[in-house]
Design goal:
Layout: E1 2-11, E2 24-26, E3 28-33, E4 36-42, E5 56-67, E6 69-71, H1 83-90, H2 95-100, H3 105-114, H4 117-133, E7 136-142, H5 149-165, E8 169-177, H6 188-205, E9 211-214, H7 223-235, E10 239-244, H8 252-259, E11 263-266, H9 272-281, E12 284-287, H10 289-295, H11 302-307, E13 312-314, H12 328-337, H13 343-349, H14 352-357, E14 375-378, H15 383-388, E15 395-400, E16 403-404
The structure holds N-(iminomethyl)-L-glutamic acid and fe (iii) ion.
Length: 406
């Protein structure tokens, strides 16, 4: 039996209530055993059985405690990097321009195809262990840099193996529809057929992913193509997710609502109708401010979504091109300053709403009895001060499945 005490504020982040309601408990305490939370409340109300001599007591030293963070949108497994493109963008070339000239996703596709499964695994494992140190206990990981049957499966198998190597909770998403590979440049339908007839069935058969994602964009997949692919995914048990309305607004959010997607991500160009349809169907909006930062594009005004009734999750979009940082608390701070959400609202967005965006809310994302004991001690008196005095290294201690990890 373990108990953590002497907490300034315990943010339980239960789901009920609005985006701003993080259900704080002043001077809270948490008790857990076997990796599962057994009791949550005010320290002064701690039941006797959690107070005996056999209990292992942890002192939070008057710091705040939050649920382990959930990064609900990453492209963790990839070969190579693209630091050259970073410099090109600073000098004025756009993300799309670079992609059209053969850089972008296709450059990472080439590098990822070159890497063996072992090499990809080693790289992804190293990155994940750094990510966990930043307070992330649950992560969603996408394929999408293979763009052939074998190479997509290779990326997804890396995630499967990573699950037994890391303590973090890992959720996988198939993103074969990230862009069109060069072999199918003149034969779009050929690639769509490959996704529908071979990739999705193979991914489902090997149980390599829970979600099917697609990049809906003028430069990638159309609404009609996306509808076809996402509906096929659904038939094979893969729940839909979308990269929608990022660089151009073209009805991606509306499609997310139509197909019953669990989330629509990016959304910088979302329409009013898009907001309304997502709210009606309960689709979570995932904001990815690091992609706006690194591509010099406008940020999503998340306030519009929250006021329109959409729950907003915050994620990094970690990938070697548009978002080469995996710092989720930086994404949270940017969502405060540019997305116009308060620190409490972004905390809910990086915990329970992010867990909902990947179907993990029954297991993690909040500090509640019966859930996995995943939480971080943050070196700050409260969430407002944490985001205000952003310094990248505020995670003091992290517990995952009840075990101290860093
Ligand atoms: O989410 N938008 C599409 N995919 C990624 C970028 C991937 C890349 O540039 O490699 C994103 O931003
Ligand atoms: Fe992405």
């Amino acid at each position: 039996m373990n108990v953590i005490k002497n907490i300034s504020v315990l943010y339980t982040c239960r789901e009920e209530g609005s985006q701003a309601e993080v259900h704080p408990i002043q001077n809270g305490a948490v008790a857990w055993s076997g990796g599962i939370i057994e009791w949550v409340g005010r320290e002064s109300d701690l039941p006797e059985k959690f107070d005996g001599e056999s209990v292992n007591v942890i002192d939070a030293e008057e710091r705040m405690v939050i649920p382990g963070l959930v990064d609900c949108h990453t492209h963790l497994c990839f070969g190579g990097w693209r630091a050259d493109e970073f410099e090109m963008r600073i000098k004025g070339r756009s993300y799309l321009d670079i992609a059209k000239a053969g850089g972008g996703i296709l450059s990472t596709m080439n590098a990822t195809r070159e890497f063996s499964e072992e090499e990809l695994l080693e790289k992804a494992e190293g990155l994940l262990s750094e990510i966990v140190k930043k307070g992330v206990t649950t992560i969603e990981c996408k394929s999408g840099y293979g763009l052939s049957l074998d190479d997509e499966l290779k990326q997804l198998r890396v995630y499967k193996r990573l699950r037994s190597l890391s303590r973090a909770h890992i959720v996988s998403t198939f993103l074969g529809a990230h862009t069109f590979p060069p072999e199918f440049k003149e034969n779009r339908q050929g690639y769509i057929d490959l996704i529908i007839n071979e990739m999705i069935p193979a991914v489902a058969k090997e149980k390599l992913a829970d979600f099917c994602d697609i990049f809906v964009e003028e430069s990638a997949f159309s609404i009609e193509e996306a509808r076809m692919i996402l509906e096929t995914g659904k038939k094979h048990g893969l729940k839909p997710k979308l990269h929608a309305d990022q660089l151009s607004g073209g009805g991606g959010a509306e499609l997310a609502a139509e197909v019953g997607a669990i989330s629509a991500d990016h959304l910088e160009q979302i329409s009013e109708i898009g907001i309304k349809s997502m709210a009606e169907r309960g689709v979570i909006g995932v904001t990815l401010p690091l992609a706006s930062l690194y591509t010099q594009q406008p940020y999503l005004n998340c306030r519009r979504l929250v006021e329109g009734g959409v729950n907003v999750a915050v994620a990094t979009d970690f990938n070697p091109g548009s978002a080469p940082s995996y710092d989720l608390s930086l994404a949270m701070m940017l969502t405060c300053n540019h997305g116009r959400l308060t620190p409490s609202e972004v905390l809910k967005g990086a915990t329970i709403y992010a867990a909902k965006a990947i179907g993990m809310e029954g297991w993690t994302g909040s500090i509640e009895q019966g859930k996995s004991a995943d939480f971080a001690v943050i070196d700050s008196p409260d969430v407002n001060f944490w985001m205000y005095h952003y310094r990248g290294s505020a995670v003091d201690r992290l517990y995952l499945n009840g075990d101290y990890v860093s």
